[in-house]
Inverse folding.
């Protein structure tokens, strides 16, 4: 073993001497490298070798290689790379290969080796390792076949080997969506390569004929265009797929038209019949401009196999938006759909996809589902204007939500419009992108009609609200949009006021009549905008009322509704409730105002402020849960800002009567407010009362200790009372209360009491907690640097100013 190690070490000497010669490393560093390499060589020469032994030397050599590259860039030394860098890289490659062969069942190890070979451009090693991995791990990892196919196509420049990997992978994984999608994409790309090669040959022929000379044969290159299959191979592959007996030229033409991709699609659909998978294949086919017939077939299958799937309708609507209209022969009877808000009121019929019958070929064979698809709008043909495409998209969605009135269908409808609105030319950020939308089929077109799209979004919100399929997320977006419009109106009001003032001053200088007229016009415009803003605020209030009725457990909606009434005041909720059952919304939206019985609950009258009524409804609907705490805090802050001390105390008392989730957070807040509003005496009285009322609250005692410590003169009697109550109520399971009590006696109290507190703690705490308490106490004693150990003789007498320690949550001062 020693001889072999010495032999390996001697092989490394030339590169080390060269590194020292060009001053990449000094002599001492070279010696350290030799010593380290010897240690690693001895480890891998042992009989009992582990994977870690090999990986240590591999990582060490890779670190040296990275250090050499860093020093070359820093020192500007770029000579002798083949003798140094490539030698080390080849050594790492050899060691890595040995490790993979020895531990071939380690999938991650082999994958790391392939990544290294790709980085170092060792393509031959990648191919050899992939073959080994596929034999060992091919049955367990379907993604490995996809990786091997992609590598052969991109780096190996062999389309035939890439196809073989995919077909072999499908034998091991006959229902793999990943491999079928990759094989489908591969056949389309292969057909595109053949088309490009044919187009290139035709161009060369035409140039040669135009120049009066024979076209020269293009020089051989090592790219994918010159490694496509010949007709014999094409016939072989098509025979494997069930299409034997096709002539060579006909086979080539059919392949260029996507015949192999069509066969692969048919095979995939037989094995995997899922709507998301078929939509994925459709999106892949859409990337190529010669797949019109294939897209028609996939679209037709999608409608036939999954007519009641939300993603099917979402895909068809998005294709309308992209200009890829699907025009079936059938016209569904009685399918007229209202397009209120989209700017059109068609009088003609609507087919099953929502497309207008005037836009589709007429037919005498109506049916519920299309029997054969007509031509899809191709990429090369002229697309309809964006506004018409958006309307067609909305028509399909309108038909979809009538057929499938589900929350998911409405979500897909709204998300599509929000994506379109976020993709407007004004640079609005895409905050409202679809989440987990597998039905998305292609990129969204640039929207040059943001106002028109925003109107459609609001109409979709309103329709979903009427259908009771809105979620919390979309209610919040809807209100944000309306409030944004309200903010713009407020800005216009301010500008109008300034303009009126300016015109009035100008009239005072010599054109008083005109100035007064201008001011009058500006004032009229301002009043009109104020009226619009008031109407918008009322509309937001009605929307939020309906939202909280639809989702009564949504904290965010109750919070937004409460804040809206706080900011804008508004009419009493009771008045709105009385009119709620009689009034109708002129915009077609339900007025989901609270009922009169809700408004007058608990003796509240119609004169009660809207904020109070909304808060009462929110607290009643949400119940005594932790999520409702922010609602109470917002109401408290609002009432404090108004200066209504009586109402603030009433809110605190109501909170304390609630369940533990509400009462516990507000107990310490109540004490703090009492100290600020009424003084420490009232706070002590309330503390004596609520400290013993369930639910017991440790934070209450902590807060009271802090408030006592803030007084100009600390009352030790009241402070000790807080600690005593905390220890009595929580001393059995909490060591902190005892430790804080001890620290208090050290800092502000009497050190003689520490012995008694220590003994009480040991008697009260559980066994495990008692051991923890003793450890904490010993640490405290060591930190303070004083003799605090309780004994028969008691504790040593100490002055308060001799104790050194930082403040703690329950320590005074």
């Amino acid at each position: 073993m020693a001889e072999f190690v010495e032999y390996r070490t001697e092989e490394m000497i030339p590169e080390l001497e060269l590194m020292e010669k060009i001053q990449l490393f000094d002599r001492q560093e070279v010696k350290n490298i030799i010593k380290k390499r010897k240690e690693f060589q001895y480890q891998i020469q042992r009989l009992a070798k582990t994977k870690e032994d090999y990986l240590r030397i591999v990582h060490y050599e890779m670190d040296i290689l990275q250090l050499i590259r860093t020093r070359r860039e820093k020192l500007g030394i770029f000579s002798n790379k083949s003798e140094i860098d490539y030698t080390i890289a080849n050594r790492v490659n050899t060691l890595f290969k040995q490790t993979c062969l020895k531990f071939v069942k380690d999938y991650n190890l082999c994958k790391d080796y392939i990544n290294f070979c790709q980085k170092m451009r060792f393509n031959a090693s990648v191919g050899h390792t992939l073959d080994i991995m596929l034999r060992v791990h091919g049955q367990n990892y379907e993604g490995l076949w996809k990786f091997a196919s992609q590598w052969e196509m991109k780096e190996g420049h062999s389309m035939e080997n890439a196809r073989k990997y995919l077909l072999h992978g499908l034998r091991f994984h006959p229902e793999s969506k990943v491999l079928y999608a990759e094989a489908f994409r591969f056949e389309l790309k292969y057909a595109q390569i053949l088309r490009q090669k044919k187009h290139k040959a035709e161009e060369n022929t035409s140039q040669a004929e135009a120049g009066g000379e024979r076209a020269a044969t293009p020089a051989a290159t090592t790219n994918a265009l010159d490694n496509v299959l010949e007709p014999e191979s094409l016939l072989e592959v098509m025979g494997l797929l069930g299409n034997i007996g096709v002539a060579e030229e006909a086979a080539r033409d059919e392949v260029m038209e996507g015949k192999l991709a069509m066969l692969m699609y048919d095979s995939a659909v037989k094995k995997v019949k899922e709507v998301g998978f078929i939509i994925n294949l459709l999106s892949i086919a859409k990337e190529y401009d010669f797949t019109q017939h294939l897209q028609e077939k996939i679209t037709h299958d999608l409608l036939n196999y999954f007519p009641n799937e939300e993603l099917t309708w979402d895909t068809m609507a998005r294709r309308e938006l992209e200009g890829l209209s699907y025009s079936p022969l059938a016209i569904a009877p009685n399918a007229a759909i209202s397009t209120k808000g989209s700017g059109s009121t068609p009088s003609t019929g609507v087919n099953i996809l929502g497309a207008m019958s005037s836009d589709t070929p007429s037919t005498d064979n109506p049916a519920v589902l299309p029997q054969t698809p007509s031509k899809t709008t191709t990429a090369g043909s002229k697309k309809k204007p964006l506004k018409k495409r958006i309307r067609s998209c909305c028509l399909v969605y309108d038909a979809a939500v009538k057929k499938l009135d589900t929350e998911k269908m409405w979500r897909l409808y709204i998300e599509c419009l929000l994506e379109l609105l976020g993709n407007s030319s004004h640079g609005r950020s895409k905050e409202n992108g679809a989440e987990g939308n597998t039905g998305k089929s292609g990129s969204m077109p640039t929207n040059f009609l943001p106002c028109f799209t925003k109107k459609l979004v609001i109409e979709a919100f309103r329709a979903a609200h009427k259908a009771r399929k809105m979620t919390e997320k979309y209610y919040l977006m809807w209100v944000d949009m309306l409030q944004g419009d309200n903010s713009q109106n407020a800005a216009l009001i301010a500008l109008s006021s300034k303009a009126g003032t300016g015109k009035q001053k100008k009239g005072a200088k010599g054109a008083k009549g005109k100035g007064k007229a201008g001011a009058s016009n500006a004032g009229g415009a301002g009043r009109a905008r104020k009226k619009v803003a008031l109407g918008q605020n009322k509309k937001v209030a009605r929307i939020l009322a309906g939202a909280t009725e639809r989702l009564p457990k949504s904290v965010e909606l109750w919070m937004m509704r409460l804040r809206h009434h706080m900011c804008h005041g508004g009419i009493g909720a009771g008045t709105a409730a009385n009119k709620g059952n009689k009034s109708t919304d002129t915009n077609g939206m339900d007025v989901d105002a609270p009922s009169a019985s809700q408004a007058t609950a608990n003796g509240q009258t119609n004169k009660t402020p809207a904020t109070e009524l909304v808060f009462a409804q929110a607290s009643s609907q949400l119940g005594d849960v932790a999520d409702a705490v922010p609602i109470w805090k917002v109401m408290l802050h609002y009432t404090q800002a108004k200066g209504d001390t009586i109402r603030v105390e009433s809110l605190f008392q109501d909170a304390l009567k609630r369940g533990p989730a509400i009462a516990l957070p507000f107990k310490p807040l109540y004490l703090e407010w009492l100290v600020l509003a009424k003084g420490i005496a009232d706070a002590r009285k309330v503390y004596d009362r609520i400290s013993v009322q369930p639910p017991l609250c440790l934070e209450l005692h902590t807060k009271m200790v802090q408030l006592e410590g803030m007084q100009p003169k600390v009352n030790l009697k009241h402070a000790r009372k807080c600690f005593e109550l905390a220890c009595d109520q929580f001393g059995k399971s909490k060591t902190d209360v005892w430790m804080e009590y001890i620290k208090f006696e050290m800092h502000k109290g009497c050190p003689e009491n520490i012995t008694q507190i220590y003994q009480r703690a040991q008697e009260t705490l559980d066994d495990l907690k008692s051991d923890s308490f003793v450890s904490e106490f010993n640490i405290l004693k060591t930190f303070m640097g004083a003799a605090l150990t309780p004994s028969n003789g008691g504790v040593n007498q100490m002055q308060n100013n001799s104790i050194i320690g930082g403040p703690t949550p329950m320590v005074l001062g």
Remarks:
- Residues 782 and 788 are 9 Å apart (CA to CA).
- The first helix runs from residue 2 to 21.
- The radius of gyration is 40 Å.
